[in-house]
TrEMBL record:
Similarity remark: Belongs to the peptidase C40 family.
Keyword Transmembrane attached: no
NlpC/P60 domain segment(s): 178-344
Organism of origin: Micromonospora sp. CCTCC AA 2012012
GO biological-process terms attached to the record: proteolysis
Name used for this protein in its record: NlpC/P60 family protein
SUPFAM superfamilies found in the cross-reference section: Cysteine proteinases (SSF54001)
Example of a GO MF term: cysteine-type peptidase activity
Keywords of this entry: Hydrolase, Protease, Thiol protease
PROSITE patterns (UniProt xref): NLPC_P60
Amino acid sequence: MVSQSNKWMWAALVVVLVATGAIVVVALRPDRAPVSAPAALTGTQGAPADASGELTYERLTRPARTQVSDAEGRVLALFTDGARTVRVSGPERTFGEARFTHATVTTDGWIRLAPKPWKAGAERESWFRPWLSRMVKDRSPDALAIAMQYQDGAKARKDAKGIQYAGDASFGPYSADDPDGRAENSDFYDYLGVPWDFPDGRHERPDKAHFRSLDCSGFIRMVYGYRMKYPLLGTNTKGPGLPRRAFALAAVGPGTLLIPSTGRPARDYDLLQEGDLVFFSHGEEAGPTIQHSGIYIGVDDSGHHRFMSSRVKADGPTFGDFGGESLLDGPSYWSARFLTARRI
């Protein structure tokens, strides 16, 4: 994306006459599809939810979870046992990425992070009611909106110290040694350009070559860790936080394992919820080894299950189809390699 100044060289300018007589200038790059607008986000306001009145609680299975509804019967939120991510109902939003796909994803789910993992009966705890009341009204960026802030063309956002914490992210620098053409090992602190001390005692310094870059697990750690404050680990071992690599997130990550890996393509799509982590093998032949990770974003306008991840060919976070459709179902590259899923 924009981590290197020499990657945005124009190949050509094509002038296209459209039916209205307007002139559209389309910029072509040697390794890209035609330029389109950056990711679109639109929303519609539905009936306001109400968490202040009488609430009802229903226990559901596969996975074990609690559905919370208001006095009018409207579902307010879904809390999954063992997980902190909560699907809160809110205004519908439509996410698009016109540069790399015609597909859009519309959802009324807002993915928030509860202060602790859920368990049956937790609605009786003191934190629950005030937290839910705030969340049903909260329109600040959730996990899905935060993820979109790293797509191609996303605008830069800086904190009070002038550190850019969001904006167009690359996957990593060019590498002749990497079979995919770009180097991995781009974590959130590389994107930020700041050193980081992890609670498990590991200290990391950013690599200048990986500035403004996020590999697949680095992208997840940026969204849920740095931005949403889920604890982060500096290693790939089990602990109270998100480990570094995709295989470790899948095997020993926190939360609830939704779809155990059998070594064969997973097909239990009905178990998934927006914001879940999804894991894949990668390479010419599908296999049982986890080598890639992403975030499930929901069912698109064609009825397909779509995910978002940071990948080499799109050079950063995308739910588009350049270099392989971002689908868990259908005859796509990634659907044949989808192995397991976890809700954190």
